[in-house]
Amino acid sequence: MSGLVIVLIVLMLSQSLLSLVQVKYYQSFIKKITTEQAGTEYEFYTEVVKGKILRTIVAVVVDVEGKVIQCYICKGLTIFARFKEEHSYRGEQLVNYRTAAQEKKAPQIEKALAQIYTRKLEAVT
């Protein structure tokens, strides 16, 4: 019985340490992007979309008109998931994804872009 308690304690400590590593990575990524875009008219948004198993974090830099300048995607379960730039969304308008949030079959990335578009509209009005 004491062996099970020790295993549980080790697992809890491991989870705490790995969570700290994940938070530090996220903070450093966000800081890097915001310092790159400092002094420009571009806006930076992040959104998390939860799937049945995986989560997708989308970080996007858009101009005033809603055109995607940079799009970064982080998918995965563990701390080993890293942000990768997704070039296929560069130059796209956020307005093109406004209905994706309601569609069940839409990719998680497009759902996140639709949610970002909605937040951008709320900030304008």
UniProtKB/TrEMBL annotation:
Listed InterPro entries: Glucitol_operon_activator
Source superkingdom: Bacteria
Protein name as it appears in the record: Transcriptional regulator GutM
Provenance organism: Enterococcus raffinosus
